Amino acid sequence: MKRAFMEGNEAIARGALHAGCQFFAGYPITPATSILTYMLGALPPINGVCLQGEDEISSLGYCLGASMAGMKVMTATSGPGISLCSEQISFAIGCEIPVVIVNVQRLGPSTGSPTKGADGDIQFMRWGNSGGLPSIVLAPTGVSDAYLLTVHAFNLAERYRCPVFIAFNKELALLKESVDLDALFLPPVENRCYANPDIPHLPFKAEKDLPPPFLPVGGETIVRQTSSTHGPDGFITIDPEVISKANDRLKNKLEKYVDRFSIYQLHEHAEADTLIICYGVTARAAKDVVTTLDKDARHVSLLILKTLWPVPEAVIQNAARKVARVLVVEMNLGQYVFEIKRVLKDKPVEFIGKMDGMLISPAQIIAGVGS
Amino acid sequence: MNDFLNRQRPAFFCPGCAHAKVATALDKALQQLHLQPSEVVIVSDIGCAGLFDTLFATHAVHGLHGRSITYATGIKLANPSLTVIVVMGDGGVGIGSAHLLSACKKNVDLSLMVLNNFNYGMTGGQFSPTTPVDASANSGFLNQLEKPLDIGDLAVTAGAGFVVRKSAYHGDLATILAEGIRYNGFSVIDIWGVCTGRYTKRNQLTPKEIDAKLATFSSLQGKIDKNQREPYGVQYRRASRALPPFPSPLIVKPKYSPVVKERQEIMILGKAGQKIVTAGEILAVAGMFSGVYVTHSCDYPVTVLRGHSISEVTISPKPIEFTGSTKPKWILAVGQEGVDRKRDTLSTLEKDVVILKAKDVYDVPCIGRIYEYDFDHLKIKQSDRALALIASLAEMNLVITSDMLVSALKTCLSKKRFNASFSLVKRTRRR
Fold first, then answer.
1. What is the pTM of this model?
2. Contact flag B295-A175 (C-beta cutoff 8 Å)
């Protein structure tokens, strides 16, 4: 069967192009740089724009400007860059600006180890914004998955008018593998819902718990976008009722609908007493664990989460309903495990994780499963 | 001509604030330019200058402190037909200085108006990048220690094509603003004014004194001859049109029967400059020519021509999940640096491991069958040694075959490099 030989970062770029990305801006940073390289090769020949920003703040700022003008946009960075992006992330959340942000995680803290993998920003991507309102975070497990989830990321950014993160990892970004692109079940490409320009436009007037219909800055109808606390008209407001309604909507428009975009894989075994929960590159080791233990008739179930935020609580509760214990495995010292403990209050939840720049091996997970 | 002011939102500045004068002048300038409100975008950020976006019935964006230039650049490049005006204070110039420099260097077709009133008015009159040394600011003695920034000079040095230093009280301000907006490229207008709410509570500054002070600065009246060039967007679109399309992904159609029966891990250990990554990719693609699954991961430090370089290739008839090495069966060692990096893994390997190594790799800490190659004697240079060992591996017909390798070389390399590599592969067949 013919297959492509593709790098993880290349799959992100190609997925973005498939989804209709027209604008990319990024600042060189290991291990995200090759996404910038691919986009620079891809966008200019199709009348798209690819910029190398003077830093990560401007890269995201350029993207937000282009998105407000109606383009599909993406940036890519790693830990030190995502840290700088924080204020612009809040802007994108508050102003409901669609953007895909690829975070190729590398070992932290701080500048850490540029060429070592980690999943150290899992809580940062959710909470690293002022105000604490949600975004969407998707975590691929491999190269073809990265292609697929990038298409989903664009669709979700457009549909819900919010930042969507791709929680990538150096170990997948620079991994090359044989992939069968024809076997991918790609969702139809979605575009922003436009407002009817013939009726007076209030840029943030929306149905309850839904994003507002979009009109571009620079179109025939005058549009206002503001990072300040605003009412439906896009002007500053101090009315507590209006403010509360707006912020509730920003939260509910994602959290209420997470069941519609909960992407996951569940390998369930009827005799399993343990459920392993993981995401990203670690899911690959866990899959090998399931195969190995099955051979010894020591069955475990496995839940691979690809939608990490908002937390797909129903998926987690359903997967855990029959098991006696849950084992969460992460390439950090314990981040998503807190969500699992919150969702599965009555279940013993154990944790395996490390921060040494090395993959968690199947043997390490098997040791955690026990006999 | 109708004005551009937002009737619902009259200016809300302190009595006597220079910003009100500038707002009136900008309205007049837009009228002079005969633009439609829908053709204009005003981008502002934080501070009293950040109230500007609400004053006009045009498109408006209000964002984070100092970042307005970044949004404006994105908007302009996405929709080149728009007239995009950025309004910042002297504080915004400081916190967003990287963006100011970048916009000057790029020559994006934007107009930047700096509402320079020598302090942070909104937060209480703290010193800004332009506060004079002898002024009294609400930052204790700190402003006395710093040289004030000359925004105009900075913009000229950074490459802006149109730079003006101007008083908010000059009668021709509207005309100058219109000229800056009309200018085809990045224009910077540094507008000096009085902050009655804060600055003149502690300092003496009148329009007359602003004139006197301006007279002591170099004259900046518009076009900067040495910085004239086409705007960024125009250059960008022209350069883009000349580019070839983005290549399709590398697709491999199997041509041979697989020789691997189970998962095989091959570790290529060397140092920077030995083309370890290229060799690993060629090996992986060679495997793909037999229709099996492959993964390829690398490990190297951030240094470029120094340090270890390691390629780990897994070739398997079944889909590959865990991508790390568990039990490599094949060690191809061409540089001691890579071997030293993997000492822990190597020391756990058992007798069935096969080691193909260059003679100058003196210490491979594992048991197993060793084949040694005297590359100096064979006159094979450092950058070809990893590929030479892959040729030897192919000869064994246990992981890939020579046919698969030749197909991979053809796929991965240019014709010239293929010819060179092909002769190398023939030359290094296992002896």
1. 0.97
2. yes
